[in-house]
Write a structure and sequence with these properties.
The structure is a single chain. The strands form two sheets. The chain has a five-stranded antiparallel sheet with strand order 1-7-6-5-4, with no helix packed on it. A two-stranded antiparallel sheet has the order 2-3. The chain is globular, with a radius of gyration of 13 Å. The chain has no helices and seven strands. Helix content is about 0%, strand content about 65%. The chain has one domain. It is an all-beta fold.
Length: about 80
């Protein structure tokens, strides 16, 4: 029987407020729309530390992208994408 990997919220980027590349663009240059949902994520360097970050969508060109984002510390953001 074949085992399929399931989608999870995976760390994609960390950076300072206003300067984070996500989906090939500076994500802070675009309007984020809050979905009202939250994602439980783990810190990329300290996996015992978990967060509940809001899930947002953003329109880039003709495509809508979804991501979770929040501050790890003052002005230091973590970004997560739901993928395999």
């Amino acid at each position: 029987m074949k085992m399929w990997k399931e989608k999870t919220w995976q760390h994609e980027a960390t950076g300072v407020d206003g300067h984070v590349a996500l989906f090939g663009v500076n994500i802070f240059d675009y309007q984020w729309r809050d979905t009202g949902r939250k994602a439980k994520v783990r810190h990329p360097l300290y996996p015992d530390q978990t967060y509940k970050f809001p899930i947002y969508t953003v329109t880039l060109g003709d495509a809508e992208q979804e991501f979770a984002a929040g501050e790890f510390s003052s002005c230091v953001w973590g970004f997560y994408v739901y993928k395999f």
